[in-house]
Design goal:
Elements (H helix, E strand, L loop, with lengths): L7 H12 L3 H21 L1 E4 L3 E8 L2 E4 L6 E4 L2 E8 L1 H7 L2
Antiparallel strand pairs: 1-2, 2-5, 3-4
Length: 95
């Protein structure tokens, strides 16, 4: 079964095929895009019009449990990213 995951190299090759840019420039574009997106998410949120929004959410400290051993442990407080799909993309996918 083929995986639906895409790597940075795959993404760079797609850019190379569609634009004709050399692979080295395509890799630089992908790396720069990821750095810009990461910084925007860190600052607040990243909105891709008609695609969706990446939001930074804060998770509080809580008690977790290992399902096999039933042993409890502390899950530390952390930040995570949520993605909310835009209504337009949701309509296209569910049409």
């Amino acid at each position: 079964m083929k995986s639906n995951n895409i790597t940075k190299i795959d993404f760079s090759k797609d850019i190379n095929n569609k634009t004709g840019f050399p692979i080295s420039i395509s890799k630089k574009i992908v790396d720069d895009l990821l750095i810009i997106c990461t910084e925007m998410i860190k600052n607040n949120e990243l909105v891709f019009k008609n695609i969706g929004t990446f939001k930074l959410s804060k998770k509080n400290e809580r008690i977790g449990r290992n399902p096999k051993t039933k042993e409890e442990f502390l899950i530390s407080k952390r930040k995570s990213i949520r993605f909310v799909v835009s209504k337009n993309l949701d309509k296209v996918l569910n049409a």
